[in-house]
Structures are given as structure tokens and as C-alpha cells.
Amino acid sequence: MILLIPILALVIGGLLAFFVGGWENIPREYIGVATLAGIDTVFGGLRAGLEGRFRNDLFMSGFFVNILLAVGLVALGFAIGVEELYLAAVITLGGRLFLNLSLIRRHYITKITDAMARKKLEVGR
To answer: Where does the chain have alpha helices with state H?
Structure first.
């Protein structure tokens, strides 16, 4: 149940962005890295939940700190004239997303193949 909260928050945020508007004035790099940081935290939370080491306080603090760090990196890049600095956040967060997604996928595939092997053994008896 607690894993549904980030998904619900993502849906509410998407609806707010769609209906409230005003996001057009914010540079798209800020929105992009903030979204990536949020999605990365959600996948990290899902992975931690599957591994049985999910902690709500770490998840919530990580969610906001990751977003602030990513947006701060974009702001720093704009401030010092290295506008492509946001790519560092995109590459790092993208790599973490793929890693977390692969571990989540591996967890479920292992669980399914183990269940199928157990069922095959039960039928063979």
C-alpha cells in the first residue's frame, strides 16, 4: 500500500501541471531533471521495497534532496555559463533508472521462474 503513494503523487503532480499551467515559463531543463530525479527516487523506493529495506524517512528525504540537487545543478550550470551541466544529472539519473529497473525486472523474473519450477516439481511427484 505504501508503494502506491509515490505513484499517486506522480499522477496528482501530472494533473496539477496539466490543469494549473504556468510551467511554460520555467526552462525545460529544470522540469526535465526534476522529473528524472523524482522517477529515479520512485524506482529506488520500489527496489528497496522489494529487497525489504524500504524506509519512509529515507525515501521522502531522498525524493526532495535528489530533486533539489538536480535542479541546483541546472541552476549552477546556467549561472556559470555551462548550460550543458544538466547533462551530468541526466546521465547519472538515467543510469540509476536503468540499474534500478533492471534489478526490479530481475527480481520478478526470478520470482516467476522459481514459482514455475516449484509447480513443475509438485506436478512431477
So the answer is: 4-20, 28-50, 56-80, 86-124
In tens, the pLDDT along 34-91 reads 989 988 998 999 899 999 999 989 988 998 999 999 899 899 988 999 888 888 888 9
Cβ-Cβ contacts under 8 Å for 40 (sequence gap 6 or more): 66, 93, 96, 97, 100
Closest CA to 100 of 50, 55, 47, 56: 47
Read off the C-alpha cell for 120. 513443475
pLDDT confidence band for 2 (50 / 70 / 90): low
Q: Which three cell numbers stand for residue 121?
A: 516439481
